Amino acid sequence: MLSVEMYPSLTLGPQRIGECFYRDRQAPAQMPLFPPAACDVAAKALPPRMLVPPPAPNDPSTKTPKDEVKMELENASLWKQFTSVGTEMIITKKGRRMFPGLRLKLSGLNPSLRYILLLDIIPLDNSRYRFQSGGWQAVGGAEARLPDRVFIHPDSPATGAHWQSRTISFHHAKLTNNTLDSQGHIILHSLHRYQPRIHVIEARDVLRWGGGQHSFVFPETQFLTVTAYQNNKITELKINSNPFAKGFREDGMNSKKQRDARQKRKISDVIETLDIVNCDPCDSTELLQQPVTTGTDLQALTLASLPPLPNPSCGFRPEGACYQDTLVPEQPLDLGQAFMASQMSDIGISMAGGMQGMPGSEVANMIERSDTMGEPAYTSTFPAVQANSSFPSAPLPQSSFSSLPIPDSSDTSNPQPIDYPSILSSSSTTTPLLQQTSFTFPTPPPSNSCSPQTLLSSSSPSANTYHTIPETINPHTPADTSFPAPPSTCQSGLQDQISAHSLLAQPNQPLQGEPIARGNNSPSDQSSAAFIYPNSLPANPDPAPVTAQSLPNYNHPPAPSLPCSLPAHGAPTSFAFPSVPPHMQNLSFSNVSPGSAHHALHFQNMSHQAQAPSLAAAFPPSSFTHPSSSLPHPHPPFQPSSCFAVSSSFQQSVSSASSMAPTAYPQNMPNPSTSSYPPVEIGGIPQFNPTAHYRPEMVLHHPSLLPQLDPSLPSNLPSSTPPPALYSAFPSYPLRLCQDPHSSLSIPFRHLYRQHQHGHAHPQGSYLDMSTRAVF
DNA sequence: TCAGCTCACACTTTTGAATAGC
DNA sequence: AGCTATTCAAAAGTGTGAGCTG
């Protein structure tokens, strides 16, 4: 049985972006655990001027429901089961659905307004993985990022009432490894880690987007793409959970037994044909035995390895003695069933007790069903599930909301999710000041991922127990009493009841709608937590060491060698992300602590492929541990079932704030002023610069694309045209609207593509055509 | 040689058209 | 004629394993 130590992150309730901080008391520093803007690609996709202006302060009428948008992952428990093993997603040339799928519940929308739901999938890190020795290891750098595609929920746009009245499923989204895919599937690289994101965008009308947007990320939905399952446990889970794979279950017609039997029959038929004179076609048993003695060597060899064919005429069950005695030794207990059963016992679903004798598949189904029945089904007991998690056991990063009434971990009686907005609103309200905060997240050198590090150890003593990498734990690290350790019990329910919030209002303005509660320390801390995360950026796991260093609860030994300095808690901190839009390059977060020193993070060994603290950094990979050859610590803890959300309002605030703060550039990053980043052209098409990576944000903000959204919009950029930006880690692509000829929607689009702006320079030049044709 | 990928296969569920009944 | 329920076949979604590829 694992304890909180092994999966401490489970103990935290849903956290807002602003809460996702690593904090080290001894070395007061804080950095966002999960960059809010990381999931705000949609927000970035919208030109700032198309965004609804932030409501005026102190105007109750301006508080819109969007400020309270919440999203839950209905089948979070199922996802967590996969995550505990190390979720693998098959990708095929023709496209493969995700399983588990994304089943979501939305609330807090304005019933009368229309919204568009988007799904995109971003890399979690910059590594390629290989399944070795029962675990996933990073074996090299990631392949060049492919054009990002965004899947628009077929119901989009639909009213808030529509979205809130049903479970939202993205099961139609398909994943492919075909870089030339023309079906509109999401293109991913095999053997890479990814994180799905969901974006809720308010659509004022079909063609004109406006209003705010919210982005949600469920850490447990991260996965590793494969073309064939590597981990048998995943296969078992899939078979037991996916109805389409029912045939592969133990009792299915496509089970190994049945397949062997079929193969045997086929061989028997061949033998019968070849040796029909000596065989009684009605006695398959004889047929099976004869070949060994009378058939060819090949036949004998083949049949010798097969179980005797059950006699179809005698009603003899293959599962009976016939197979048991002859088949290759099988595990007495279906691993999948055992796993599921064990999970169930831990999950604590009310009906779990009655499921002891159920087949794994049924258990899985019940779990699936229970997912849709409400959070309480598993929330309070989910930690147990995580006991089997292969996630690193690193303690959860402490929330900067130290003063927040974090639910007692031991209190499992209340599975209800914490209403953070309420909590926060009840606390002191400090207008988030985002200035003077500077964090620089350059990209780690590719070499970082070249040192294999076992991500998932299948050699755990228990088949269902996955221990974390020992070196990630430092038992001697003193606990930070000011930041209570995560509750021993996962408020998974809480965590799954993710809340999207409008984190920030305009700088220097009171928060609109939902005031952000402040911890005693630094109210703005939380807000600062909601820093802009470079969209479309491959997550960079390498900040992990930094976070680890800053997180006492991680129990990580200090990394003195790490050439970085973390801003003291409450100290002014700025986050500079080379790949974020220029106007977001500098996130300035005013800290409550007056006079605190200004600190900037520097990763000297980072490459030019600047990457912001990634999702990987935000949540420790389930069974995937990013290797950090040069970095002593694994990923920061991951917040299972927590949803990180960011709203456009924050972006705006950040954007505004950034304008007030000096821009911080990575040391090894080119000066934006001299960067080859293409200048924004007003009313024109961006110049194609084959040597420069286009930043999607820039392209997206480019007016040349706006006519597609709203022809009436002026073609000139807003006065706040962002300055030139640094190269992004990967080439990114502008959003494009493509009409789906097959869609029954009245809306003339279904999929969004962040299209490669300079596809000619991209290996996948075919994407160039996507600008002129709808690709579905 | 081998890791990774592709494809055909058998099975299952889903979907939608056709039909029957009220 | 219109609606609902049922049936059926095709389509689509599964994992498997052999074969191919670089």
Automatic annotation (TrEMBL):
The keyword DNA-binding applies. Its main location: nucleus. InterPro entries: p53-like_TF_DNA-bd_sf, T-box_DNA-bd, T-box_sf, TF_T-box, TF_T-box_CS. GO terms for molecular function: DNA-binding transcription factor activity, RNA polymerase II-specific; RNA polymerase II cis-regulatory region sequence-specific DNA binding. It is found in: Nucleus. Gene3D superfamilies: Transcription factor, T-box. The keyword Signal does not apply. One of its GO terms (biological process) is cell fate specification. Residues 389-494, 509-541, 618-637, 660-682 are annotated as: Disordered. Residues 399-411, 421-441, 448-465, 618-632 have a biased composition (Low complexity). Pfam families: T-box (PF00907). Residues 389-398, 519-529, 665-677 have a biased composition (Polar residues). Keywords: Developmental protein, DNA-binding, Nucleus, Transcription, Transcription regulation. GO terms for cellular component: chromatin; nucleus. This is LOW QUALITY PROTEIN: T-box transcription factor TBX6. It comes from Cottoperca gobio (Frogmouth). The lineage of its organism: Eukaryota, Metazoa, Chordata, Craniata, Vertebrata. The gene is tbx6.
